[in-house]
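Could you please consider the sequence and fold following this short note?
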Amino acid sequence: MPKFRTEKDLLGEMKIPSDALYGIQTMRAVENFPISKRPVNPALIHAYGTVKLACATTNHELGKFDGGKFEAIHQACGEMASGKLDDHIVADALQGGAGTSTNMNVNEVIANRALIILGRKPGDYKTIHPLGDINLHQSTNDTYPTALKVAAIRQQRILEKNLVALLEAFQKKEKEFAHVVKVGRTEYQDAVLTTMGRTMSAYAEAFGRDRWRVFKCEERLRVVNLGGTAIGTGVTAPRQYIFKVVENLKNLTGLGLARAENLVDATQNNDAFVEVSGIMKACAVNLIKVSNDLRFMSSGPDAGIGELILPECQPGSTVMPGKINPVIPEAVIQAALKVMANDGTIAHACAMGHLELNAFMPLIADSYLESIDLLINASSILSTRCIEGLKVNEKACRRHVENSTATLTALVGRIGYEKAQEITCEFRKTGKSIREIAISTKILSAKDFDDLTSAEAVMKLGS
Protein backbone atom coordinates (compact mmCIF):
# COMPACT_ATOMS: atom_id res chain seq x y z
CA MET A 1 0.00 0.00 0.00
CA PRO A 2 1.49 3.39 -0.93
CA LYS A 3 2.46 5.64 1.95
CA PHE A 4 0.81 8.65 0.35
CA ARG A 5 -2.23 9.46 -1.74
CA THR A 6 -2.54 12.45 -4.04
CA GLU A 7 -5.42 14.91 -3.63
CA LYS A 8 -6.35 17.90 -5.76
CA ASP A 9 -8.01 21.22 -5.06
CA LEU A 10 -8.33 24.64 -6.68
CA LEU A 11 -4.65 25.41 -6.11
CA GLY A 12 -3.17 22.14 -7.29
CA GLU A 13 -2.08 18.78 -5.87
CA MET A 14 -0.63 17.62 -2.54
CA LYS A 15 0.54 14.29 -1.18
CA ILE A 16 -1.41 13.17 1.89
CA PRO A 17 -0.44 10.24 4.17
CA SER A 18 -2.42 7.31 2.77
CA ASP A 19 -4.13 6.44 6.05
CA ALA A 20 -4.84 10.02 7.13
CA LEU A 21 -8.48 10.94 7.66
CA TYR A 22 -7.82 14.60 6.87
CA GLY A 23 -7.26 15.80 3.33
CA ILE A 24 -5.70 18.47 1.17
CA GLN A 25 -7.51 21.50 2.58
CA THR A 26 -6.57 20.51 6.11
CA MET A 27 -2.94 20.11 5.03
CA ARG A 28 -2.97 23.59 3.54
CA ALA A 29 -4.33 24.94 6.83
CA VAL A 30 -1.59 23.20 8.79
CA GLU A 31 1.02 24.80 6.55
CA ASN A 32 -0.62 28.23 6.49
CA PHE A 33 -1.51 28.71 10.16
CA PRO A 34 1.27 27.60 12.54
CA ILE A 35 0.07 30.29 14.95
CA SER A 36 -1.13 29.22 18.39
CA LYS A 37 0.21 25.65 18.15
CA ARG A 38 -3.00 24.63 19.92
CA PRO A 39 -5.80 22.44 18.57
CA VAL A 40 -9.35 23.63 18.02
CA ASN A 41 -11.29 23.40 21.30
CA PRO A 42 -12.65 19.83 21.54
CA ALA A 43 -16.09 21.07 22.60
CA LEU A 44 -16.40 22.89 19.27
CA ILE A 45 -15.39 19.77 17.34
CA HIS A 46 -17.87 17.58 19.21
CA ALA A 47 -20.62 20.10 18.55
CA TYR A 48 -19.57 20.25 14.90
CA GLY A 49 -20.04 16.49 14.64
CA THR A 50 -23.61 16.89 15.87
CA VAL A 51 -24.27 19.78 13.46
CA LYS A 52 -22.98 17.67 10.55
CA LEU A 53 -25.22 14.81 11.68
CA ALA A 54 -28.25 17.12 11.68
CA CYS A 55 -27.37 18.30 8.19
CA ALA A 56 -26.82 14.74 6.90
CA THR A 57 -30.06 13.57 8.49
CA THR A 58 -31.99 16.39 6.80
CA ASN A 59 -30.41 15.66 3.43
CA HIS A 60 -31.23 11.97 3.83
CA GLU A 61 -34.86 12.85 4.59
CA LEU A 62 -34.89 14.86 1.39
CA GLY A 63 -33.64 11.84 -0.58
CA LYS A 64 -30.10 13.07 -1.18
CA PHE A 65 -28.34 9.99 0.29
CA ASP A 66 -29.06 6.31 -0.16
CA GLY A 67 -29.29 4.15 2.94
CA GLY A 68 -25.76 2.74 2.92
CA LYS A 69 -24.07 6.09 2.40
CA PHE A 70 -26.18 7.76 5.07
CA GLU A 71 -25.51 5.03 7.62
CA ALA A 72 -21.76 5.41 7.11
CA ILE A 73 -21.94 9.21 7.38
CA HIS A 74 -24.24 8.91 10.40
CA GLN A 75 -21.72 6.68 12.19
CA ALA A 76 -18.78 8.93 11.30
CA CYS A 77 -20.63 12.04 12.54
CA GLY A 78 -21.48 10.22 15.76
CA GLU A 79 -17.83 9.35 16.28
CA MET A 80 -16.89 12.98 15.71
CA ALA A 81 -19.52 14.10 18.21
CA SER A 82 -18.31 11.60 20.84
CA GLY A 83 -14.67 12.67 20.64
CA LYS A 84 -13.35 9.50 18.99
CA LEU A 85 -11.93 11.47 16.06
CA ASP A 86 -10.33 14.35 17.98
CA ASP A 87 -6.79 13.33 17.05
CA HIS A 88 -7.58 13.84 13.37
CA ILE A 89 -8.55 17.52 13.82
CA VAL A 90 -5.14 19.08 13.24
CA ALA A 91 -5.98 22.61 12.06
CA ASP A 92 -4.70 25.34 14.38
CA ALA A 93 -7.17 27.00 16.74
CA LEU A 94 -6.41 30.40 15.14
CA GLN A 95 -6.82 30.56 11.38
CA GLY A 96 -7.91 32.84 8.59
CA GLY A 97 -11.08 32.26 6.62
CA ALA A 98 -13.81 32.60 9.26
CA GLY A 99 -13.36 28.96 10.31
CA THR A 100 -13.26 27.38 6.86
CA SER A 101 -10.19 25.31 7.78
CA THR A 102 -11.99 23.84 10.78
CA ASN A 103 -15.08 23.10 8.72
CA MET A 104 -13.01 21.41 6.01
CA ASN A 105 -10.97 19.44 8.54
CA VAL A 106 -14.28 18.17 9.95
CA ASN A 107 -15.70 17.49 6.46
CA GLU A 108 -12.62 15.57 5.34
CA VAL A 109 -12.35 13.49 8.48
CA ILE A 110 -16.05 12.55 8.43
CA ALA A 111 -15.89 11.71 4.71
CA ASN A 112 -12.80 9.53 5.02
CA ARG A 113 -14.02 7.81 8.16
CA ALA A 114 -17.33 7.06 6.39
CA LEU A 115 -15.36 5.65 3.46
CA ILE A 116 -13.50 3.29 5.77
CA ILE A 117 -16.82 2.19 7.31
CA LEU A 118 -17.97 1.34 3.78
CA GLY A 119 -14.81 -0.66 3.17
CA ARG A 120 -13.29 1.99 0.93
CA LYS A 121 -9.93 3.75 1.11
CA PRO A 122 -9.50 7.34 2.32
CA GLY A 123 -9.52 9.72 -0.61
CA ASP A 124 -12.15 7.83 -2.64
CA TYR A 125 -14.18 11.00 -2.95
CA LYS A 126 -16.24 9.70 -5.88
CA THR A 127 -18.06 7.60 -3.28
CA ILE A 128 -18.32 10.18 -0.47
CA HIS A 129 -17.05 13.71 -1.00
CA PRO A 130 -16.15 16.18 1.80
CA LEU A 131 -17.90 19.04 0.00
CA GLY A 132 -20.42 17.32 -2.24
CA ASP A 133 -21.80 15.15 0.55
CA ILE A 134 -20.63 16.14 4.05
CA ASN A 135 -20.95 19.87 3.35
CA LEU A 136 -24.07 19.56 1.19
CA HIS A 137 -26.40 22.58 1.53
CA GLN A 138 -24.06 24.15 4.07
CA SER A 139 -21.40 26.81 4.47
CA THR A 140 -18.75 27.44 7.07
CA ASN A 141 -20.66 30.64 7.74
CA ASP A 142 -23.72 28.88 9.14
CA THR A 143 -22.27 25.62 10.49
CA TYR A 144 -19.35 27.16 12.42
CA PRO A 145 -21.36 29.73 14.45
CA THR A 146 -24.05 27.11 15.08
CA ALA A 147 -21.50 24.59 16.34
CA LEU A 148 -19.98 27.28 18.55
CA LYS A 149 -23.33 28.06 20.13
CA VAL A 150 -24.07 24.38 20.74
CA ALA A 151 -20.64 23.92 22.31
CA ALA A 152 -21.04 27.05 24.44
CA ILE A 153 -24.45 26.03 25.79
CA ARG A 154 -23.20 22.56 26.68
CA GLN A 155 -20.13 23.91 28.46
CA GLN A 156 -22.12 26.61 30.25
CA ARG A 157 -24.37 23.93 31.70
CA ILE A 158 -21.28 22.31 33.21
CA LEU A 159 -20.16 25.68 34.55
CA GLU A 160 -23.58 26.27 36.07
CA LYS A 161 -23.36 22.97 37.97
CA ASN A 162 -19.90 23.89 39.25
CA LEU A 163 -21.13 27.27 40.44
CA VAL A 164 -23.98 25.58 42.29
CA ALA A 165 -21.44 23.32 44.00
CA LEU A 166 -19.31 26.35 44.89
CA LEU A 167 -22.16 28.37 46.37
CA GLU A 168 -23.33 25.30 48.32
CA ALA A 169 -19.81 24.87 49.71
CA PHE A 170 -19.92 28.48 50.94
CA GLN A 171 -23.42 27.96 52.36
CA LYS A 172 -22.11 25.01 54.34
CA LYS A 173 -19.32 27.18 55.74
CA GLU A 174 -21.88 29.90 56.48
CA LYS A 175 -23.59 27.54 58.92
CA GLU A 176 -20.35 26.07 60.23
CA PHE A 177 -18.83 29.49 61.00
CA ALA A 178 -22.03 31.26 62.09
CA HIS A 179 -20.93 31.48 65.73
CA VAL A 180 -17.49 32.98 65.02
CA VAL A 181 -17.35 36.74 65.54
CA LYS A 182 -14.65 38.58 63.62
CA VAL A 183 -13.54 42.09 62.80
CA GLY A 184 -15.10 43.41 59.61
CA ARG A 185 -12.81 45.60 57.56
CA THR A 186 -13.30 48.39 55.04
CA GLU A 187 -10.42 49.78 53.00
CA TYR A 188 -8.15 47.29 54.80
CA GLN A 189 -8.92 49.04 58.11
CA ASP A 190 -10.81 47.69 61.13
CA ALA A 191 -14.46 48.74 60.85
CA VAL A 192 -17.20 46.91 62.79
CA LEU A 193 -17.84 43.41 64.05
CA THR A 194 -19.40 40.74 61.89
CA THR A 195 -19.30 36.95 61.79
CA MET A 196 -17.31 34.63 59.60
CA GLY A 197 -20.58 32.94 58.73
CA ARG A 198 -22.02 36.15 57.35
CA THR A 199 -18.84 36.67 55.34
CA MET A 200 -19.28 33.22 53.81
CA SER A 201 -22.94 34.01 53.08
CA ALA A 202 -21.93 37.03 51.00
CA TYR A 203 -19.67 34.85 48.88
CA ALA A 204 -22.46 32.30 48.41
CA GLU A 205 -24.83 35.06 47.25
CA ALA A 206 -22.29 36.34 44.73
CA PHE A 207 -21.86 32.93 43.14
CA GLY A 208 -25.61 32.42 43.28
CA ARG A 209 -25.96 35.45 41.02
CA ASP A 210 -23.26 34.06 38.75
CA ARG A 211 -25.11 30.77 38.51
CA TRP A 212 -28.32 32.53 37.52
CA ARG A 213 -26.56 34.74 34.95
CA VAL A 214 -24.82 31.75 33.37
CA PHE A 215 -28.16 29.94 33.18
CA LYS A 216 -29.70 32.91 31.37
CA CYS A 217 -26.86 32.92 28.81
CA GLU A 218 -28.50 29.98 27.09
CA GLU A 219 -31.38 32.20 26.02
CA ARG A 220 -28.93 34.48 24.20
CA LEU A 221 -27.22 31.61 22.37
CA ARG A 222 -30.11 29.34 21.42
CA VAL A 223 -30.93 31.22 18.19
CA VAL A 224 -28.79 29.85 15.35
CA ASN A 225 -28.27 30.64 11.66
CA LEU A 226 -28.02 27.05 10.39
CA GLY A 227 -29.61 26.90 6.94
CA GLY A 228 -28.54 30.42 6.06
CA THR A 229 -25.46 29.12 4.20
CA ALA A 230 -23.09 31.82 2.90
CA ILE A 231 -24.59 35.12 4.08
CA GLY A 232 -27.98 34.16 5.52
CA THR A 233 -30.00 34.06 2.32
CA GLY A 234 -29.95 30.25 2.18
CA VAL A 235 -28.39 30.23 -1.28
CA THR A 236 -27.82 26.64 -2.61
CA ALA A 237 -30.01 25.12 0.11
CA PRO A 238 -33.55 23.82 -0.63
CA ARG A 239 -36.34 25.58 1.22
CA GLN A 240 -37.40 22.30 2.87
CA TYR A 241 -33.86 21.79 4.15
CA ILE A 242 -33.73 25.26 5.68
CA PHE A 243 -36.95 24.67 7.60
CA LYS A 244 -36.03 21.16 8.79
CA VAL A 245 -32.33 21.26 9.66
CA VAL A 246 -32.54 23.25 12.91
CA GLU A 247 -35.40 21.08 14.13
CA ASN A 248 -33.24 18.00 13.55
CA LEU A 249 -30.35 19.63 15.40
CA LYS A 250 -32.68 20.51 18.26
CA ASN A 251 -33.81 16.88 18.52
CA LEU A 252 -30.24 15.55 18.38
CA THR A 253 -28.89 17.89 21.05
CA GLY A 254 -31.89 18.15 23.34
CA LEU A 255 -31.23 21.90 23.48
CA GLY A 256 -33.89 24.57 22.98
CA LEU A 257 -32.47 25.76 19.68
CA ALA A 258 -34.40 27.93 17.23
CA ARG A 259 -33.73 29.17 13.71
CA ALA A 260 -33.12 32.91 13.60
CA GLU A 261 -35.97 34.88 12.04
CA ASN A 262 -33.40 37.06 10.29
CA LEU A 263 -30.67 34.73 9.07
CA VAL A 264 -28.73 37.58 7.47
CA ASP A 265 -28.49 39.36 10.81
CA ALA A 266 -27.55 36.15 12.61
CA THR A 267 -24.78 35.46 10.10
CA GLN A 268 -23.04 38.84 10.17
CA ASN A 269 -23.61 40.08 13.75
CA ASN A 270 -22.07 38.45 16.82
CA ASP A 271 -23.06 40.82 19.61
CA ALA A 272 -24.63 37.90 21.52
CA PHE A 273 -21.13 36.62 22.21
CA VAL A 274 -20.12 40.03 23.56
CA GLU A 275 -23.09 39.94 25.90
CA VAL A 276 -22.50 36.43 27.27
CA SER A 277 -18.76 37.02 27.50
CA GLY A 278 -19.59 39.88 29.84
CA ILE A 279 -21.38 37.36 32.05
CA MET A 280 -18.24 35.22 32.10
CA LYS A 281 -16.26 38.32 33.05
CA ALA A 282 -18.65 39.05 35.93
CA CYS A 283 -18.08 35.53 37.22
CA ALA A 284 -14.32 36.05 36.90
CA VAL A 285 -14.60 39.28 38.90
CA ASN A 286 -16.30 37.44 41.78
CA LEU A 287 -13.70 34.68 41.71
CA ILE A 288 -10.91 37.25 41.95
CA LYS A 289 -12.58 39.21 44.74
CA VAL A 290 -13.35 36.17 46.86
CA SER A 291 -9.96 34.54 46.23
CA ASN A 292 -8.17 37.71 47.30
CA ASP A 293 -10.28 37.84 50.46
CA LEU A 294 -9.31 34.26 51.25
CA ARG A 295 -5.64 35.10 50.76
CA PHE A 296 -5.93 38.15 52.98
CA MET A 297 -7.81 36.49 55.82
CA SER A 298 -5.41 33.53 55.81
CA SER A 299 -2.30 35.70 55.61
CA GLY A 300 0.55 35.09 58.00
CA PRO A 301 -0.56 32.91 59.56
CA ASP A 302 1.61 33.77 62.57
CA ALA A 303 2.49 37.35 61.69
CA GLY A 304 -0.60 38.21 59.66
CA ILE A 305 -4.40 38.11 59.88
CA GLY A 306 -4.58 34.34 60.25
CA GLU A 307 -8.35 34.12 60.65
CA LEU A 308 -8.84 31.43 58.02
CA ILE A 309 -6.88 28.23 57.58
CA LEU A 310 -6.75 27.11 53.96
CA PRO A 311 -6.18 23.44 53.12
CA GLU A 312 -2.48 22.68 52.72
CA CYS A 313 -1.98 21.62 49.10
CA GLN A 314 1.78 21.71 48.59
CA PRO A 315 5.00 23.07 50.13
CA GLY A 316 5.28 26.76 49.44
CA SER A 317 8.99 27.42 49.16
CA THR A 318 12.29 25.87 48.18
CA VAL A 319 14.14 28.03 50.69
CA MET A 320 11.70 28.93 53.52
CA PRO A 321 10.92 25.86 55.67
CA GLY A 322 7.31 25.38 56.73
CA LYS A 323 5.89 27.95 54.31
CA ILE A 324 2.53 27.03 52.77
CA ASN A 325 1.15 29.34 50.10
CA PRO A 326 -2.52 29.96 49.12
CA VAL A 327 -1.91 28.31 45.75
CA ILE A 328 -5.53 27.47 44.92
CA PRO A 329 -6.80 31.07 45.23
CA GLU A 330 -3.71 32.21 43.33
CA ALA A 331 -4.43 29.80 40.48
CA VAL A 332 -8.09 30.80 40.41
CA ILE A 333 -7.14 34.48 40.16
CA GLN A 334 -4.85 33.80 37.20
CA ALA A 335 -7.59 31.89 35.38
CA ALA A 336 -10.07 34.69 36.07
CA LEU A 337 -7.66 37.34 34.80
CA LYS A 338 -7.35 35.39 31.55
CA VAL A 339 -11.15 35.34 31.25
CA MET A 340 -11.23 39.11 31.65
CA ALA A 341 -8.58 39.48 28.94
CA ASN A 342 -10.56 37.16 26.67
CA ASP A 343 -13.62 39.36 27.14
CA GLY A 344 -11.78 42.30 25.62
CA THR A 345 -10.55 40.13 22.77
CA ILE A 346 -14.07 38.89 22.05
CA ALA A 347 -15.48 42.42 22.01
CA HIS A 348 -12.84 43.60 19.55
CA ALA A 349 -13.23 40.52 17.33
CA CYS A 350 -17.02 40.86 17.20
CA ALA A 351 -16.70 44.53 16.33
CA MET A 352 -14.41 43.57 13.44
CA GLY A 353 -17.20 41.85 11.53
CA HIS A 354 -17.45 43.60 8.16
CA LEU A 355 -20.48 43.67 5.88
CA GLU A 356 -22.09 40.21 5.55
CA LEU A 357 -19.61 38.16 7.62
CA ASN A 358 -17.22 38.16 10.56
CA ALA A 359 -13.88 36.70 9.45
CA PHE A 360 -12.65 36.42 13.04
CA MET A 361 -14.96 33.66 14.25
CA PRO A 362 -12.02 31.36 15.13
CA LEU A 363 -10.71 33.93 17.63
CA ILE A 364 -14.19 34.46 19.08
CA ALA A 365 -14.69 30.71 19.44
CA ASP A 366 -11.26 30.03 20.90
CA SER A 367 -11.49 32.88 23.40
CA TYR A 368 -15.05 32.23 24.51
CA LEU A 369 -14.73 28.47 24.91
CA GLU A 370 -11.42 28.96 26.71
CA SER A 371 -13.12 31.36 29.13
CA ILE A 372 -15.82 28.82 29.93
CA ASP A 373 -13.24 26.05 30.35
CA LEU A 374 -11.17 28.23 32.68
CA LEU A 375 -14.20 29.10 34.80
CA ILE A 376 -15.30 25.45 34.94
CA ASN A 377 -11.88 24.38 36.19
CA ALA A 378 -11.29 27.35 38.47
CA SER A 379 -14.67 27.08 40.20
CA SER A 380 -14.13 23.33 40.61
CA ILE A 381 -10.74 23.56 42.32
CA LEU A 382 -11.85 26.48 44.48
CA SER A 383 -14.78 24.41 45.72
CA THR A 384 -13.14 21.00 46.12
CA ARG A 385 -9.56 21.93 47.01
CA CYS A 386 -10.14 25.04 49.08
CA ILE A 387 -13.62 25.81 50.41
CA GLU A 388 -14.67 22.27 51.36
CA GLY A 389 -11.60 21.96 53.59
CA LEU A 390 -11.62 25.57 54.82
CA LYS A 391 -11.28 26.07 58.59
CA VAL A 392 -11.56 29.10 60.82
CA ASN A 393 -9.04 30.06 63.49
CA GLU A 394 -11.43 30.99 66.27
CA LYS A 395 -8.66 32.05 68.64
CA ALA A 396 -7.26 34.53 66.14
CA CYS A 397 -10.72 35.92 65.40
CA ARG A 398 -11.43 36.38 69.10
CA ARG A 399 -8.02 37.96 69.70
CA HIS A 400 -8.69 40.50 66.97
CA VAL A 401 -12.13 41.26 68.38
CA GLU A 402 -10.69 41.91 71.84
CA ASN A 403 -7.86 44.05 70.50
CA SER A 404 -9.55 46.23 67.91
CA THR A 405 -11.37 49.52 68.29
CA ALA A 406 -13.89 48.07 65.83
CA THR A 407 -15.35 46.29 68.85
CA LEU A 408 -16.31 49.62 70.43
CA THR A 409 -19.03 50.11 67.85
CA ALA A 410 -20.77 47.07 69.31
CA LEU A 411 -20.50 48.59 72.80
CA VAL A 412 -21.38 52.22 72.17
CA GLY A 413 -25.13 51.64 72.28
CA ARG A 414 -24.81 50.42 75.88
CA ILE A 415 -21.95 52.55 77.28
CA GLY A 416 -22.27 55.71 75.18
CA TYR A 417 -19.78 57.49 72.97
CA GLU A 418 -17.81 59.19 75.82
CA LYS A 419 -17.10 55.92 77.65
CA ALA A 420 -16.15 54.27 74.39
CA GLN A 421 -13.71 57.09 73.72
CA GLU A 422 -12.18 56.64 77.18
CA ILE A 423 -11.57 52.98 76.42
CA THR A 424 -9.96 53.96 73.10
CA CYS A 425 -7.53 56.33 74.83
CA GLU A 426 -6.59 53.71 77.41
CA PHE A 427 -6.17 51.13 74.68
CA ARG A 428 -3.80 53.39 72.73
CA LYS A 429 -1.86 54.30 75.89
CA THR A 430 -1.47 50.90 77.60
CA GLY A 431 -1.86 48.33 74.83
CA LYS A 432 -4.29 46.38 76.99
CA SER A 433 -7.15 44.67 75.21
CA ILE A 434 -10.52 46.37 74.76
CA ARG A 435 -12.13 43.59 76.78
CA GLU A 436 -9.63 43.90 79.60
CA ILE A 437 -10.05 47.69 79.86
CA ALA A 438 -13.85 47.58 79.75
CA ILE A 439 -13.97 45.00 82.53
CA SER A 440 -11.16 46.41 84.72
CA THR A 441 -12.67 49.90 84.67
CA LYS A 442 -16.08 48.40 85.49
CA ILE A 443 -17.61 50.04 82.45
CA LEU A 444 -18.90 46.59 81.56
CA SER A 445 -19.00 43.22 83.24
CA ALA A 446 -17.39 40.24 81.53
CA LYS A 447 -20.83 38.84 80.81
CA ASP A 448 -22.08 42.12 79.32
CA PHE A 449 -18.99 42.41 77.11
CA ASP A 450 -19.36 38.86 75.87
CA ASP A 451 -23.09 39.30 75.27
CA LEU A 452 -22.60 42.54 73.32
CA THR A 453 -19.92 40.96 71.14
CA SER A 454 -21.69 37.65 70.62
CA ALA A 455 -22.66 36.41 67.17
CA GLU A 456 -26.35 36.98 67.94
CA ALA A 457 -25.79 40.58 69.01
CA VAL A 458 -23.41 41.38 66.18
CA MET A 459 -25.76 40.07 63.52
CA LYS A 460 -28.96 41.59 64.92
CA LEU A 461 -30.48 43.80 62.24
CA GLY A 462 -30.47 47.38 63.51
CA SER A 463 -29.94 48.64 67.06
In short: The CA atoms of residues 156 and 372 lie 7 Å apart. The chain has three domains: 4-136, 143-237+248-393, 403-458. The two ends are 88 Å apart (CA to CA). The mean pLDDT is 95.
